[in-house]
Amino acid sequence: MTFAAVSAGTALTAAAAAAGAYAIGMFPTASLVGRRIGRDPRKEGSGNPGASNVYRLGGKRAGLVVVAGDMAKGFVPTLAALLAWGWPAAGAAWLGAVAGHVWPATRKFQGGKGMAALGGGALALEPVAAIVCAVAFAAVVRFTRIAALGSMIAVVAYPLLVVWWYGWTGGQVAVALIASAVVVFRHRSNIARLARGREHRVARVHDEPAGDRDQAPDEPVRDRDQDRVSDEPD
User: Fold this and answer.
1) What are the mean pLDDT values of the chain's consecutive 10-residue runs (234 residues total)?
2) Which SS3 state, helix, strand or coil, does residue 27 take?
3) What ranges do the domains of the chain cover?
4) What is the DSSP letter of 114?
5) What share of the chain is helix, strand, coil (3-state, %, to 5)?
6) How far is Cα 132 from Cα 5, in angstroms, rounded to an integer?
7) SS3 state of residue 189
8) How many CB atoms lie within 10 A of CB 204?
């Protein structure tokens, strides 16, 4: 078999893995859990269909279910591709799952922020590095109550860890950087508020003072296309 044929076959396999993972990534975990608890995370709280908003609206159990479901959307297709075809199919599946969660075609390309799906794929590829990042995320949120800050630290740490510990190079590093960049991009409004010292802290809606809920009192409501105010890491 020629090199060109191998390359074409590899590209087709990666494309198929990405497409399948994208379809899985579109699964509306937060909306389904929200419906179960009688809330709509797309219309209530921050308006972001992610675990932090569901936690805010429905409590810890509901939030954990969304975390688990969204992580599975990244973990399952990435691990399946890794076991079946290795790289680059696994990397393509990871990117596809994140893209499906963030830009779902079934919901007008308006999804979550991608953190849990990113974490699930990272766990499939390099479990130890992913667990270290998860511990760092949990510690930051525990002491600061700012989910976006923990998310950004974890997102930056993972590519550094896989290069340092596992010697990732070339395309593998590129995939990790692209996946991380998508999540950073989706958190751009959070980053701007962090820079101003105005990022919101994780709390359930009925536990928050009126002025601390999903947006600052003097900030106008944004629509979904403008990244509605939230502290979602998902």
Assistant:
1) 57 94 94 86 77 79 90 96 94 96 91 92 94 94 86 92 88 91 90 84 52 36 40 52
2) coil
3) 24-226
4) S
5) 70, 0, 30
6) 39
7) helix
8) 14
